[in-house]
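Sample 1 of the test manifest.
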Amino acid sequence: MNPPLLSVEDLSVEFRTREGVVQALDRVGFTVAKGETVGIVGESGSGKSVTALAIMGILHPAARVTAGRAVFGGLDLLAASERQRQEYRGRELSMIFQNPRTALNPIRTVGRQISDVLLRHANAPRAKVKTRAVELLARVQIPDAERRFDAYPFELSGGMCQRVMIALAIACAPALIIADEPTTGLDVTTQAGILDLLDELRTTTRTATILITHDLGLAAERCDRIVVMHAGHVVESASARALFSAPRHPYTARLIASTPRPGVKLAELTPITGAVPDLRGDLTPCRYRTRCERAADICDEPPLPRAEVATDHMVACRSPL
Amino acid sequence: MLWDNGRTSVAGGPERSSSGPSPALLDVRALTKRFPVRGTAHEVHAVDDVTFTIAPGESVGLVGESGCGKSTLVKLIARLLDPTDGRIYFDGKDLGAIPAERFARAPARARIQMVFQDPADSLNPRFTAFDAIADPIRRLGDEPRGTLRRRVEEIAELIGLPYALLGRYPHQLSGGQQQRVGIGRAVALRPSLLILDEPTSALDVSVQAVILHLLADLRERLGMAYLFVSHDLNVVRMVTGRVLVMYLGKVVETGPADAIFDRPAHPYTRALVSAVPVLDARRRRERVRLSGEPRSPIDPSPSTCRFFGRCPDGFEHCEREMPVLRPITPDHLAACFLGGDAPRG
């Protein structure tokens, strides 16, 4: 088997806060192959975004990577110098943020923002930059791209701004795009259009994507493989088909059972008990323990197992389903 | 009382008064709201000739994309905005005739309440949970001061909020607890109609399930009717009996929730329903893709279907005549010339 495009191994991240050290990620690991779409799902506070920011090397200054590697194209991004990382970001590795209106520069036209990326990362000759930027706007299906080049973000709808974000992300034909909730807050029809665009990029350029979402339906429809996170742990990872048809971790099963979906009545919709635990101080090996209906004494024995229960199906549980 | 004033309720002319109030709890007729575009003679047609009813205790869903007029319609019904034209009968009384600025103190205010999308934004950060729930009772209720605490505690019990949390401020509560407070203040006066504007879209699925159960339980116990606005169609299908689909200010389809989702008749509804991500691969259906850009809501042509240009099934006639809601089955209506027989895909 070819080495994966991105291999995240034992990634641990801490945040120093006034109230103590938050163990935001604990030994997070997963891989992304070329051209693959990997979904990261879980509740708020599960560490999905922190994982993305750590890979990109843009964590908050209060955060510290305490262990682990993120090997991308032979380079460990976590050990690389800031200068090396800058060469990767934008060119090989790019990110689409949740709220395009706040992620785009409000006082710079969208065309200028795309040109900036082309000049900085693609070594595009200045004379050709505008043509390339307009091409990119057209590629992300922005109607009347020539005219929209001079538009400011506030003049565009949320869906159009997200298309501009994608244009920025694909400007240098990166090998991996990390999309953090790229369609949250958009209409379903707009959402479908944006995701179609990402799908199309994948088929035409073999771009790999990490899609971070809290929408299981969306993950099921758009991803090849799914990584389920809870409280800074990867609790399960498998192909989308295996994960949703036969989840093995109790948390995955509860997450599915709490998701409204066709054919399920409200009475059958079951909430997940408890909340994501406080990640400060001493934590049990399994961080789902207090919420889990299958919990037993054995669950308190360290370390948390990360077992391969089937080919390419990892579960971090002492008594999987 | 204002709405007993005969002159205001027949202000639309004698032909209006003959069609009179109906037994519906909420009876919205030809409701229209236009906003002037500043510095021009143009107008945005936000809500255009919308007619529907909600029966006592009924749960009705309102769906459509951003900018379709959902929020304006909700604000008109909650009487935060004055309509340009049309009628809003609530329990047979013409609420539309009461100016929005006076409605805040009208007795009917107590009977129409709202739950907002983001409880963190919609709760007063300087109010404890107790104050948030007590505020509407103090303003509009007739609770003697001595029993106010008892009353608030009753509501806390109803919404499943531990008494111990009543002294907390919004930032000291979790998202789910905040939304319980948001619901608590809305049901404090035992309204007959609760307008829920994306009540769970700021919450995680695990918490969403809890809140949806709470809302279903409250509706049963208090006999309230719901107008449930959401763009999560999976949720709407689960919690409403009937659905209204809006597109650029118009209701383009309405019917029982199952009919809307299983047999959508309007091409827009078909596109909307087919775009909803579905977990179960066996239940996925072929996507109806929309092309082109939505028409402008500014001075739209009264004789062109609002969906024309974006509609996969549009033909010449759609540009010459505005389709009106027509029955597909007795309780399922769609505003499309193709009447549900449009070619698929």
